[in-house]
Amino acid sequence: MLAGDVDAYGIIVDRYHGRFARFATRMLGSREDAEEALQDALIRAYRALGAYQHRERFAAWFYRILVNRCRSVLAQRQRRRAVEEPTADQDSPTSDAGFVGREQATWLLSRLPADQREVFLLRYVEDLSYADIAAITGVGESALKMRVKRGLEQLRQLLRQGNDG
Amino acid sequence: MADDLPPELEAFVTGLRTTPSANAALRERVLASARGLGVPRRSRLPVPRSLLIGLAAVLAVLVLRRHPEGRDPARPVPFVLMAPKAGRVSIVGDFNDWDQAATPLQRAGEHTWWVVVNLPPGRYRYSFVLDGTHWVADPAAPRAADNDFGAESSVVTILGKGS
Amino acid sequence: MAVYVVAACSVTAALSAQSRLESRVPAPVLAAVGPTIDSARAAGLPTGPLEDKVLEGVTKQADAGRIAAAVRRLAGELAAAREAFGDRATTRELVAGAGGLRAGLTRGDLVRLRAARPGQNTALALEVATDLITQGVPSDTATRVVLKVLGAGASDADLEQLRMAVERDIAGGVPAAVAASVRARVLSGSPATTIPITPRPQN
Fold it and tell me: In CA terms, which of B34, B157, C62, C111 is 20 to 30 Å from A32?
């Protein structure tokens, strides 16, 4: 696909929008922030198409750009002294045992440090291999697995507390 | 496996896998930007609107310029390496973003690998990579003065027209 | 509008550079090199060579710290070359100057080599001097040799011929400094020395 073929890029945007928007929304906990990060990443990726040499899958290549944009948004938030957790963060939303509603899912994810949340989402929601995640994030596989392990432990504990409370 | 999803998190992850509905407005903003129309994006950065308009005006005519002397036509430049034991060889350098997958060499006979790369006039640092792991400078070319990463590179100079 | 076009060019160049790196470079490396590249851009230095250095480091699997150090070093050399050449120097001249400094040329050598070709692109002269040094010619000899042929009105093709001829001579066993001096003498048109041929004894 030529870098200048906007219509072809539109097809790619349509095809991949869902999963990329999903990652950004889960990562940032805010649909508005996710749309900003995704739009930015899609525009940057279009400009970088000349450098995309089909060395890797387009999705993996694009995830790297999107992960960087999400990290920038999170860093901007910190600089504006905004809290990462949603405003109603004191208590977990109530839920029936075994059912995790959207609010609760957002709250649970927000409890994870950003680096654990990132690899958790890429591994279990986006179904990427550790090799792909390592290439996307620049973090070695053993460090990634440690982050996953800690993230899973924290999520299990939070779910247990939510169901007990 | 050590990182299999615990059963109590399966419902949680299933819920996370739902994808948001398509956002037509976002799609149009992306494609408009790609066409160089400079539709202002939602941003918290204090970018003046007039700057965005100016940016849009020049976007359509600007190209990535990595080689300012590249107005002269590119010339075919052969690169040859004797590497009888290699299973695969590629060339990486300033002309292909040091990308191992971009420019593989072909075998000619048992021992020789070669490729022809079209290069505009200029000077380029490069190296050969054998089997993805072994770095080799070109024995037939001058060495690059810098060796920042523990693997030497070579240089090739392509003269401009009228030289 | 002209101001905005210039500003837009800078913003576009910055975004293009970011896109070129973001698609290939892991985030920790980007974070490590970003400040240096931004500073270089703000100082009006070319960032293409810095990006090439980052991509080289990533491909060679260097860690972020090492890549950042290499980028900082190159940025410093580009700045030093611009200080020697002035603001009108082209990107290629700056890169050639940086390479020359790395190889062992002094600031004074850079200034002299540039002055030997006033109004013309001096990148090739710097590059040939650098290549002579990397082949083993002492830096002061390399500068002297290139200045000599430039003084005789050498073209780009002559400079390239000098480099290739010295390379062949060195490969043939001639000491590097000798090879450079002899070739420079030939190319600059110094009178040839006639070697008397002793007739073979007839038996």
Answer: B34
pLDDT in tens, C115-163: 998 777 799 999 999 999 999 999 999 999 999 999 998 899 899 999 9
Outline which parts of chain B fall under CATH 2.60.40.10: 75-158
Quote the strand ranges of A35-159, DSSP E.
Answer: none
Q: Is C42 helix (H, G, I), strand (E, B) or coil?
A: helix
**Span C20-70, pLDDT tens digits:** 788 889 988 998 999 999 999 999 999 999 999 999 999 999 999 999 999
Domain spanning A93-165 has what CATH number? 1.10.10.10
Find, among C143, C110, C184, A30, the residue nearest to B20 by Cα: A30
Query: What is the ipTM for the molecules in this complex?
Result: 0.84
Q: CATH homologous superfamily of domain B75-158?
A: Immunoglobulins (2.60.40.10)
Cβ-defined contact of A123 to B29 (cutoff 8 Å): no
Closest CA to B158 of B127, B126, B125, B122: B122
Whole-prediction pTM value? 0.57
Residue with tokens 């432990």: A153
In a mutational test of the C interface, the residue from B49, B67, B94 whose CB has the highest number of chain C CBs within 10 Å is: B94
Q: How many inter-chain contacts (B to C, CB under 8 Å) are there?
A: 116
For CA atoms C83, C88, C89, C92, the dihedral sign is positive
- The token pair at A27 is 């990562």
